[in-house]
Amino acid sequence: MVPGADIMHGEAVNVDGFFCVILSYLRGYIDMDTVNRIFACMKSLSLPTNSSDLNLELAWQSCKDAIEHRHGEQRIPLITEIGESICVSDVTEEELERALVFLGKFDH
Question: 0.70 exceeded by the pTM?
Answer without folding.
Answer: yes
